[in-house]
Amino acid sequence: MTTERRQDECVLITGAGSGIGAVMAQRFAALGARVVIVDIDADAAERAASQATGAIWFQADVTDRGRLAEVFREVRDRRGPVSVLINNAMTCADADFLDLTVEEWKRDVSVCLTAAFHTAQLALPDMLAAGHGSIVNISSVNALQYLGNVSYSAAKAGLISLTRSLAVRFGADGIRANAIVPGTIVTPAWDHRIAQDPHVLEDSRRWYPSTRLGRPEDVADAAVFLTGSQSGWINGESLIVDGGLMAGNVAMAAQIVPDERSR
Ligand SMILES: NC(=O)c1ccc[n+]([C@@H]2O[C@H](COP(=O)([O-])OP(=O)(O)OC[C@H]3O[C@@H](n4cnc5c(N)ncnc54)[C@H](O)[C@@H]3O)[C@@H](O)[C@H]2O)c1
Q1: Does residue 27 lie in a domain region?
Q2: Does the pLDDT of residue 1 top 70, yes or no?
Q3: Crossing angle of helices 19-30/216-226, nearest 10°?
Q4: Ligand 1 atom, smallest distance to 142 CA
Q5: What is the average per-residue pLDDT within 4-29?
Q6: What one-character DSSP code corresponds to residue 110?
Q7: Integer distance in angstroms from the first to the last C-alpha of the chain?
Q8: How confident is the model over 31-44, as pLDDT tens digits?
Q9: Which domain holds residue 237?
């Protein structure tokens, strides 16, 4: 699929030091965009920038509004105004609901949801002045169905609501906002879970109708599409990228439909 891109595209991706964000940075850089990597982990951001042609990087905590404002000012000076904003940084508390602390709750909501409010407010004035812009919020299937991680899930559900608000409020200004809703994607985010249970990913594969887990490239492809000319009339959408996980329940179908048991 070919997608026409704007020549002056400046793509800022939060949490791009690792996993999906790092692969998105590489993908947009390969398309000729000026890529800006923002991550709380300076070493990771620098490493990711070295793998994305021409990318620049900033160490920033996305919950720090003042620091983000500095980053957007410096990006404007060095690369021009941000035309594509991808909110991708995340934290995800593992604790059971009864043990979850208010600090963990607040951190997930700050990083996964409030940060997107900050970055959108900082990016929008330049997008409005330019008469175009695209915002992509990386949500999760956890926003749609209980799969554990209560605070993360609530924040990711809020991110879908924020996406719709931005789409409707700024649609007439040439600005689109869409969400991507990934299922399990094999990234370093899973490393601590693999350390507890080496089979966690292989075991979860059986829930996926497409029989494989996701790759960062699956999400990067969706982000390229949602920010390109071929999705020009897609606004306020939540694009599920999950190998069919949210479409139905493989195990239940196999249990109640005899012919499916042999799958
Ligand atoms: N991996 C999955 O299975 C999966 C599934 C659904 C959705 N997602 C979503 O995809 C996105 C990327 O996930 P990933 O798997 O690549 O994660 P990852 O852990 O590999 O990368 C997340 C990045 O966010 C950065 N970060 C954390 N807190 C930050 C902060 N306060 N300020 C700035 N940066 C911060 C981390 O340093 C890290 O580089 C996230 O939004 C995640 O919720 C992932």
Answers
A1: yes
A2: no
A3: 50
A4: 6
A5: 95
A6: I
A7: 32
A8: 999 999 999 999 99
A9: 10-188+213-247
Q: Retrieve residue 2's tokens.
A: 């070919």
Element (H, E) at 173: none
Does residue 205 fall inside a structural domain?
A: no
pLDDT for the residue 4: 73
- pLDDT tens for each residue of 114-163: 999 999 999 999 999 999 999 999 999 999 999 999 999 999 999 999 99
Of 78, 68, 180, the C-alpha closest to 120 is 68
Tokens of 124: 């929008």
Instruction: Count how many domains the chain has.
Output: 1
In a domain, 134, yes or no: yes
Cα separation, 208 vs 228, whole angstroms: 28
Cβ < 6 A, ligand 1 pocket? 14-15, 17-21, 39-41, 44, 61-63, 88-91, 111, 138, 140, 182, 184-185, 187-189
| 88 part of a folded domain | yes
Does residue 260 have a pLDDT over 90? no
Say how many Å lie between the CA of residue 111 and the centre of ligand 1: 10
Please give the distance, rounded to the nearest whole angstrom, from the Cα atom of residue 189 to the centre of ligand 1. 7
CA of residue 255 to ligand 1 center, whole Å: 35
- Please give the angle made by the CA atoms of 104, 106 and 111, to the nearest 5 degrees: 95
In the numeric block, the tokens 């905590």 are attached to 61
Read off the pLDDT band of 92 (50, 70, 90). Answer: very high
3-state helix, strand, coil in the chain (%, to 5): 50, 15, 35
Note the pLDDT tens digit of each residue in 50-89. Answer: 999 999 999 999 999 999 999 999 999 999 999 999 999 9
Amino acid at position 195, single letter: A
CATH of the domain at 167: 3.40.50.720
Amino acid at 203: D
